[in-house]
Amino acid sequence: MAHLIDHLEQDVDWDKVFGVVEDLYTDDGFTSRADNFITSTCVELALEKFSNLKRVDQIGYDFTYGDLKVELKMRKGLFYKRRPNATQAVKMKNFQGNKKTLNEFKEQSTFDYCIILDLTNYQVIVVEDETIREKYYEDGDGVFVKLDLGDYYKCDVGEVKPVQSQYQLSKALDRIKQEWIGAR
Predict the structure, then answer these.
(1) Which of 59, 50, 45 is nearest to 111 (CA)?
(2) Which end of the chain is more exposed for a tag (fewer CB within 10 A), N or C?
C-alpha cells in the first residue's frame, strides 16, 4: 500500500482533480440521476489524467496501479463534523438487478484498495479490501460502509486549490448531442 499512498500524496495533481469535481458539482446543467454516470466518469478520467493510475473500468474496480486493482468511491461531506475521524455511509455496491446477497459481497474480493474522495473537503483516504469488506452492511438498494479511525489511511494531499474551467460540461454535451442528432 505504501507505494500507492506515496503516489497519491506526492504525484497526483489534486488541484486539477478537485477542480474537475468543483466544475461538475456546480454545473447547473447536471440535475438528473442519469447525470451521475457522466459526473463519476469524468472524475475517474480526471484522476487518470492527473495521476499514474490507469482507468480500466472493470466490474469491481476502476483503476490499476501497477499490479494493484483500485476502486474509487466519492462522497460529499465524507466525515462527520462532530466525529471527524468517522465517515458517513459510502455506497459500495448496488443491488439493482443483482442477485448477490450481502454475505456474497463480503466474501468476494474484487479490488486491492479503495480510494475514497471527500468531494466537499478535498480529502483522500485509502482502505484495504479486507478491511472495507468486513464493514459492509445492507441498507435499501445497496451495500454501504462506515469507517472509523484505524480502518483507513488519510493521505496528506496538502492544501488543495481547485483549478476550474471556464466552460460548463453540460452545455458542451448538449451542443454536441444536438449537432450529432441534426447530422442526419
Answers:
(1) 59
(2) C
Cell for 57?
473500468
Residue entry with cell 494493484? 68
Q: DSSP 3-state assignment of 86?
A: coil
Q: How far is Cα 7 from Cα 80, in angstroms, rounded to an integer?
A: 27
pLDDT by residue, tens only, the chain of 184 residues: 679 999 999 999 999 999 999 999 999 999 888 898 999 999 999 999 999 999 998 888 999 999 999 999 999 999 998 888 999 999 998 876 666 778 888 888 999 999 999 999 999 999 999 999 999 999 888 899 999 999 999 999 999 999 999 989 999 999 999 999 999 9
Domain annotation for the chain: domains and CATH numbers: 2-182 (3.40.600.10)
With H, G, I as helix, E, B as strand and everything else as coil, classify residue 127: strand
64, containing H or E segment:
strand 61-65
Query: In one letter, which amino acid is 81?
Result: K
182: enclosing H helix or E strand: helix 169-182
